[in-house]
Design a protein that fits this description.
Blueprint lengths: L9 E3 L5 E6 L1 H4 L5 E7 L8 E3 L3 E8 L2 E5 L2 E5 L4 E4 L5 E5 L5 E8 L7 E3 L1
Amino acid sequence: MLTPYRAQPAFRTKDGSEIRELMHPATHGNRAQSLAEGRIEPGQETALHRHHDSEELYHVTAGEGLMTLGDDHFEIMPGDTVAIAPMTPHRVRNIGDQTLVILCCCSPPYSHDDTELL
């Protein structure tokens, strides 16, 4: 199944990031996971949050960021992948001068109801 990028509208998630769902069961018919592209502009950051059920994988495709993952803080850059276990507080801040672009895979699929702002 193909989902053209240009046909997927962007929206704001509960944590404040701009997301484009590339594949989600509610829209595309896949079953057990979702894949989205998140974009964070220079100087911006997502709200500290956690997911009760979803495990996330973040894969950075452009830009530079500072990742908060539980009590850890570390820089992320293109090619880096971060695993985020359920119930782990996390956020990302763009520390560069380009848009920070992250592919985000969630299993089970992303849901606003599974997101708790901290």
